[in-house]
Amino acid sequence: MVLQAIKYTPASSAGAATLNILDQLLLPHQSLYIPISSCEDAFDAIKQMKVRGAPAIAIVAALALAVECTRTNISSRSAAEARDQIIERLGYVKKSRPTAVNLSDAVNKLSNVVTKAASSDVADGQAVVHKYIAAAERMLIDDVSDNKAIGAHGAKWIAEHTAAGQSKTRNAAQELKILTHCNTGSLATAGYGTALGVIRSLREAGLLTHAFCSETRPYNQGSRLTAYELVHDQIPATLVTDSMAASLLAREGTNVAAIVVGADRVAANGDTANKIGTYSLAVLARHHGVKFLVAAPRTTIDLGTPSGEAIVIEERDQQEVTRIKGPQIGSNGDLREPATISTAAMGINVWNPAFDVTPADLIDGVITEVGVVEKQNGVFNFEPLFASMTETHRESHPSTVGGM
Ligand SMILES: CSC[C@@H](O)[C@@H](O)C(=O)COP(=O)(O)O
To answer: Would you say the CATH fold of 152-314+350-399 matches that of 6-142?
Structure first.
């Protein structure tokens, strides 16, 4: 059974479209799908991280508005009114989380779609809504195929560019292990995953011998979500805390072919914002001579942000650091909403940035759905990747800028 974070059913004669998401706050103890029927539902679910991961939050925001369109009378309004209402609702949901560019990229793209649809002399509200829903649904479909392509490109690159990969393809009894951080799998995307997609792809090719996932403090996306996906897929894997990574690399040597991570925003120069702790892993990778790769669709590359300095880093509640969360067991053995207990001294100050920025210098390659980009003369150039993009995405891209 394939893990699915997002379940969407288009509108039909039976009724309005529906959207349900797997509540990731309850994982790995409980699999509960919750309905998302409006932009307010999506905003809260994204903010509280019931859904998280750069591609997944963009898709949930887009589809929540598609559902809202099929549940309200927006199609009965004029084309201009429908356009304005859709753009206003997109602007609202865009404010839920600032760092992942996929959300603002999707908002820009969809705003352009409805602006173009409404500009036709014969357009009415229904035509504008129809175009919006088709574009939002397309994002769900495209994300899975993009992830599979990322997986294939990443696996090929690792097989060709690492000592472990080259030995493995010669059928030597060599280990090929990958370390990953945070959760970038089916739970962070429409399916398959980015960095975890590379791990899945290596496994399908018979090359991967072992995966390591870091706990990813303070929110534990690694131990709760990536570990869950690896166990689910029966991929041989070991969980380590973030502070064990240096010892792991020292012990494993070149058995670890690469550290592969996802991204929330890749600036034009390659500086990459991703889950806090990514930067430390990149420094460790350089020290140990291990390749460091970022796996992300082109929607995560932000040519409008020149470098990492311009990326807005979300800071979250201090309780995510001072408290840990676990399931509560009811008197009859049922699982209840997780409860938190304090693990820190009362009154201590806390800094809780959700992401950090890894300098481009420490990144060996960015794996996208159209190939792996490496630095030429020490510089990343992502421009050529966008030459083959669909018209809709190209339209959106120049206006994609850092921050919200
Ligand atoms: C394919 S997901 C890529 C990134 O979004 C992921 O690595 C990450 O940092 C997620 O952070 P989160 O705070 O859990 O949304």
So the answer is: no
SS3 39: helix
Q: Does residue 264 carry a catalytic annotation?
A: yes
Instruction: Give the pLDDT score at 404.
Output: 31
Sorted by where each begins, the domain ranges of the chain are 6-142, 152-314+350-399
pLDDT at 333: 74
* The Cα angle at residue 265 between residues 264 and 269, in degrees rounded to 5: 150
What pLDDT was estimated at residue 390? 59
Q: Which of 105, 142, 264, 356 is catalytic?
A: 264
Domain 6-142 has CATH 3.30.470.10: no
354 lines ligand 1 (CB under 6 A): yes
Please tell me the number of Cα atoms within 13 Å of 311 on its side-chain side: 33
How many Cβ atoms sit within 10 Å of the Cβ of residue 6? Answer: 23
User: 52 CB under 6 A from ligand 1?
Assistant: yes
Q: How far apart are CA 63 and CA 139, in angstroms?
A: 9
- E-assigned strand segments in 253-364: 256-261, 265-267, 272-275, 291-295, 301-302, 323-329, 335-342, 355-358
Beta strands in 250-391 (DSSP E): 256-261, 265-267, 272-275, 291-295, 301-302, 323-329, 335-342, 355-358, 365-368, 371-373
The CATH architecture annotation of domain 152-314+350-399 reads 3-Layer(aba) Sandwich (3.40)
